[in-house]
Amino acid sequence: MSGINLSKCVLVIGATSGIGRALALAIHKLPTKPTVIVAGRRQNRLDEILNEAKGDAEGAKTLHAIQFDASAKVEDLKKFVAETVAAYPELDTVVFSAGMQHIFDFTKPEEINLDFAAQEINLNYVSIFSLTTLFMPHLLKLGRPAFLVPISSTLAMVSAGRVPGYCASKAAVHSLSMSLKNSLKDTNVKVMEIMPPLVESELHDHQGTTPALTNIWLPLAEYTKHAMDGLQRGDFNIVVPQNQALWDKFEKERVDFDPMATGAFINKKA
């Protein structure tokens, strides 16, 4: 099994902006011409993506959109998955890009909005866990290569004090990705986790930090190329060269370690 070049039908959840949007369009342009489904909350943004494809009659046939809120209740998630699988039985790849980030200052705990914190954890992690669970029966039954592509962050490796909820949620996604990698290793489903650095996006607009971050973030176009290279190679962890040293230091040895397979957690009698 290799990478995303084998995909026939790709669903990108959270495709209305940033990395999700860029990846959806880049995947759609692959020479293998997969069908790409862009999903997100904002219908106007979905319409913009579809309009971009109208200049290419053939390309427009393989680009579709579904309005969908990944933070919805479980019953709505179940309905979305059932309807999507029914409409696109060739679906073999799911990219999880929906996310949010809030600044929380624990030196001012009275100012922390716990509703925002719960929403952040739910969208960034719980929705991925839930949707992975719901899509899994379909993916396992395909009988050919299928892919799960969670998007975590380099902040899953090292935490930033200003965004503790975001860091924790991305660390959870990273841990889930490793668990899935181990549990699915003998199946047709492969996990490819994207771990972006600080990348040009709208994620920070509501924080008022975008003007300052424009001086240090990685341009979206440059990042997308790195991410697509990793997806086409079939990398488990996809990191940019600038963060390779960080990944080597904290993750290189543990991502291939399966504690259950090695018996590391099995109590043995003396």
TrEMBL record:
Keywords: Oxidoreductase
InterPro entries from the UniProt entry: NAD(P)-bd_dom_sf, SDR_fam
Gene3D superfamilies linked: NAD(P)-binding Rossmann-like Domain (3.40.50.720)
Keyword check for Oxidoreductase: yes
Entry GO MF terms: oxidoreductase activity
Pfam family, one: adh_short
Record family assignment: Belongs to the short-chain dehydrogenases/reductases (SDR) family.
Protein name: NAD(P)-binding protein
Source organism of this protein record: Schizopora paradoxa
